[in-house]
Task: structure prediction
Amino acid sequence: MVNSFLIFIFSVLISYLTVPIVNQFGKKLSILDNPNFRKDHPKPLVRLGGLAIYIGFLIPNFIFHQSGLTNLENQNIINIFLICTFLFFFLGIIEDIFHISLLIKLISQVLISSYACSQGFIINLSNFPFSQILEKANLYDLFSIFISIIWIVGIVNAFNWVDGLDGLASGLLIITSFGLFYLLINNDSNLYPIIILLGMIGSNFGFILHNYHPAKIFMGDGGSFFIGSVMALFSINPEIYSLNNTAGFVNIFAKILILGLPLLDMIYVIINRIVKNKSPFFPDRSHFHHRLLDLGINHKQTVIYCYAIHIVCLSIGIKILIT
Result:
């Protein structure tokens, strides 16, 4: 467990010390996030902070992985996890630099998710009431893949959409990771999943020291796609996330609550936009944090309220899972 704590410390330090370097790099290349009607920062800021998060997570994890201390039976699943999270991160960085189209982003996310599913990152639907019907119709595997792709793409975009205020996305990620850490540490889990969570907590903590209001840098899509993909893939593979992976209704509901505000906010926003005859991807100020701001609540208070609501959702989800 001492080695685990060192992973956390190194992740914090690497992320924190990398942010100023990334910030200078982004300014030189003018990779900036400019203010508009949906954004509350007064001046352009670099949107490459996800690079510091990724480096802060990857380097300590890679060293630990290469040390041979991992104790998963299937070592290949770790490689697939690292490959897929990198692909989501890389896609986000491409968006941060070149601003690719929504369709290309969505297709790319589906392709990465499909690859992950083909390598074992898939939701077990055996406890669903209609699973036997699907098996008789030879549609069970296809439907499982379909649901798993929606799950992965949905969570990746949920963290991307919630990244609208200083410190919000990283803070929610840290809270979620602590919740998952609590579940695993009390379940005699393999060590490597705990290392993943400590790396995520550490790298995001190092970043949030620069990103909390008033932010000096943004994580951008590279950061939000990365942290979203980690949470998505982490939640559905039983060799990494060793708790019950069978997707009964109660289990799915608990996992939705554990992922909390990002996922619930995305569901509300999509429904709200469809009801208003708009595209689900139409940018507006219907996100929960925007609505709090529009009520006159200040920036820092809004972020704290979002943290509090997320903690409540997470706590209920954990209670359901361990009951």
